[in-house]
Amino acid sequence: MAVRMYRVSSPKYSNKIDDRSDCLMIRTSRTSDLSVLLSLTADTFEHHKRLSPHFHPDVLTPYTLESLGQMLDSEQHLCLTSLDGDDITGYLFGKWTAPAPDRFKPVRILNVTDVGVTFSHRSSGTGRQLMQAAEELALERKVDAVRLNVWAVNDRAATFYEELGFEPLYTNLQKSLVQQ
User: Fold this and answer.
1) What is the model's pTM?
2) pLDDT tens digits for range 9-28
3) Rounded Cα distance, 8 and 36, in Å
């Protein structure tokens, strides 16, 4: 995918005390972003580990520089980076899926697999604008739906996605058989 840039104006968030720019740039991720993205995925994963005991305590991030590089090089993946000036403030990773003949109506889907925003930019509109850019790209590709998963313990994320118009599709339940 060629590098695409989106300048997203967000006057709703421009009156913040820290006087941030009212323009956030979202573009496809670049190889030069990888080390910062790896660090940011570690921050996001650490946040998830605080929310749930299901994550392995010794794993810092589910990614490596190599796996992120492979995602960037793959036509099946969407990798977006948000910037405030020269600073990377967030990312969105997704995977394009083609219709599969199964028991459900075949649809083209963008599966958003991971979204992360730096602590300093949370609640500033960065996540919303990353999702907006992903949806615009999905519409250009004639995708039928955008899907994502949210951990049940992540109420803030669930509320955020519901505000963006996402609705529950199915519920995945688990019963632990290990005594604690």
Assistant:
1) 0.81
2) 443 333 233 334 457 899 99
3) 22
